[in-house]
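Data availability (excerpt). The following record was deposited with the supplementary files.
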Amino acid sequence: MHHRSTPSSLDGIDVWDGHEPLGARRLAWAPSGTDASPDAVVSDLQPVPPSPRYEGLSVIPGLIDTHVHLIGNAGGAASGFLTWPLVTPPTEQVLHGLAHASRALLGGVTTLRDLSADEVQFSLARAVEAGLVEAPRLFAHGMVSMTGGHGDMFVPPGVDPRLRKPTADGVDACRALVRAHARAGATGIKIATSGGLLSDGDKPSWRNHTVAEIDAIVDESHALGLLVAAHAHTTEGIRIALRAGVDSLEHATQLGAGLAVDVIAAGVPVAPTLLINDAIADGTVPVTPDQQAAARELVATRDAGFAAAAAAGVDFVLGTDANGFHVRFGEQMDELRRMGEVFGWSPERVLEAGTSRAAAAIGRAAPSAGGAGSGGAVLGRIAVGAAADFVVMHGRPWRDAGVLDTANIVAVVARGRVVAGTLPV
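Predicted structure:
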């Protein structure tokens, strides 16, 4: 188990706090909570004269990726995206998940949200929360899919049915699966209101679950204090998700200026997952011709629609859909720079998407009561009482988004501990 942090500080370093630059500050952090807690929080943020030792350096909050899939082959060996989970036991999968999480940490990501979690990710989240392993904070959403739905189609037809993930058909079964995920340790629920791209034989236009089933899932999730993330590529899928009252939209590839009004009114954040859909459409990652064609059709009008939605005020946040196969862990800064290009954002808005706004999307812009994967403290900010999760970098990324590159990372601090690089002295 990792030991609790000892009080530490950076005196006179430039700080961007998740909303705005603060100038030179004394950034200090100290242990928080009980002896069993591995956490630390920011304890001081007073203005001080700039220090020559930190010339050219700055501090930003640790990044938050609101949409990942940790379980996949992290070993680099050639393997099928769909077949690897079917031939790899859960006891081995968790090690690959930890390897992916560690790579994200090296890339400045201090919080991850896995949106297709089961007992493997739930167990990993508990181990992270207890300080048993070094990894980003982990939020884990259990998937509620119908038979033949997006979540079910990652196991191809003909495969032993015992290898399929649980599905739910009918209102009562949907409620029961939400409850089962909550009992197992889920910190949220994921649904699909359209088909997908990488699920075998799936089509984005397919409906997933009936209105009554979706309403039951959302109602049961909210009754248990769980946020609901909705996979939705199509216009109709977005409308269904908004009507049901979900808490975030994943992909939203056909979102444009017209639907943007409804998204803004609902106050729902959107994770656009740009790089993975670009890669599938371009064929730069292994995909089938059908998958590439479906992605090309979706992406063809995406950027113009997203730019219009962003201009209207849609709350886009960092969500990569990283799985280690189509998008690697550690490419989150690449995704943020791409978001800035597509949306025409200022560098500060780019940073907000990966910090304070992403924290709000996962329900951690304010202190939490705790629970597996939560930890309680405010995330995505550098403020007294907020989690001591931050990245020391060369340059000022709030002035130039091009600086937001892993090559410029000097050190990563998570839970008050240096987990990558070395703090300048």
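Summary of structural features: The CA atoms of residues 17 and 382 lie 5 Å apart.
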